[in-house]
Amino acid sequence: MIVQQIIENINNNQRFLVVAHENPDGDAIGSTLALALSLRDMGKDVVAYNADAIPDVMRFLPQCDVLVDSLPDNSHFDIAFVLDAGDLERTALPVRDLCQTVINIDHHPYSDFGDLCYVDTDACATAVLIYRVLMACQYQPSLAVAKALYLGILSDTGSFRYSSANQESFAIAGALVGLGVDPWEVSSNLYESNTPERMRLLSLVLPSLQISSSGHYASISMTLDTLKQSGASEEHSDGFVNYPRSIRGVEVALFFNQTAENLYKISFRSRGAIDVGT
């Protein structure tokens, strides 16, 4: 079983890199912190890395300062855990050159890289898979780990509103609350701690709303000029794609994010009937 193989790799090695995709969301940050802190509790040497800074709304997480955005020269690890990435390139790090073994843990479809690949698309979040691994290790999560896992699940289920919020997600969330997690603390920090910069940016982005004649597709866009005018940064636009998706009748939403002159990053979100992951 793949989980048992992961446990054997944890037991038989000492130096670990834990990394998720760039421009991290709640699941990427929560999964990274949860696994990194757990491995440290087990006596392992761990570096938790992300190419981008932790979003401000997630800085309430205990020990979040362990997450770094640079590595010392000549860094090398026994194992690299790549979490929630979908593709190795999304780590913005030469992971293969830094370790002996790559372990991919993800809940996204078509995520098939790694020497070991633990992917379950029925899981609502990568944090769920981390929880399964920790339980199989007979590890009792600390409150810091529990908060990080809860954040990952809450974020990727849209506060348990999305269709991905299955029975397992509620069961694990309940167990984490039993360990001391305060749901209001997590949700209020994540959803009710908007900065003035984010709200100014949103006020400039929403007028770009376009809805198709069928009413099934909608989009918004953000330009470099918009960012400059608002005084915000790209991280402040996290979750903006959910606004056009919230419109009645819309099945697919798009967010056009200008990252450079003549270069855009496009985010897709679906209500579930249409696969936008391919």
Walk me through this protein's architecture.
With 278 residues, the protein is an alpha/beta fold. The longest helix is centred in the first third of the chain and has 16 residues, at 26-41. The two termini are 27 Å apart. The protein has 2 domains: 2-191, Alpha-Beta Complex (inorganic pyrophosphatase (n-terminal core)); 196-270, Diaminopimelate Epimerase, Chain A, domain 1, CATH 3.10.310. Helix 2 packs parallel to helix 4 and helix 5 crosses helix 7. The protein contains 10 helices and 10 strands. The radius of gyration is 19 Å and the shape is globular. It is 35% helix and 21% strand. The strands form 2 sheets. A 6-stranded parallel sheet has the order 3-2-1-4-5-6.
Number of strands: 10
CATH level-two architecture of the largest domain: Alpha-Beta Complex
Silhouette: globular
Mean pLDDT over all positions: 95
Fold-level CATH name of the largest domain: inorganic pyrophosphatase (n-terminal core)
Keywords:
four-stranded mixed sheet, alpha/beta, Diaminopimelate Epimerase, Chain A, domain 1, six-stranded parallel sheet, globular, 278 residues, inorganic pyrophosphatase (n-terminal core), 2 domains
Q: In brief, what are we looking at here?
A:
Helices cover 35% and strands 21% of the residues. The protein is built from 10 helices and 10 strands. The model has no long low-confidence stretch (mean pLDDT 95).
Q: Would you spell out the secondary-structure blueprint of this structure?
A:
Blueprint: H1 2-11, E1 15-20, H2 26-41, E2 45-49, E3 67-68, E4 77-83, H3 95-98, E5 99-106, E6 116-119, H4 126-136, H5 143-156, H6 167-178, H7 183-191, H8 196-205, E7 210-211, E8 217-222, H9 224-230, H10 242-245, E9 252-260, E10 263-270
Parallel strand pairs: 1-2, 1-4, 2-3, 4-5, 5-6, 8-9
Antiparallel strand pairs: 7-8, 9-10
Helix pairs in contact: 2-4, 2-5, 4-5, 5-6, 5-7, 8-9
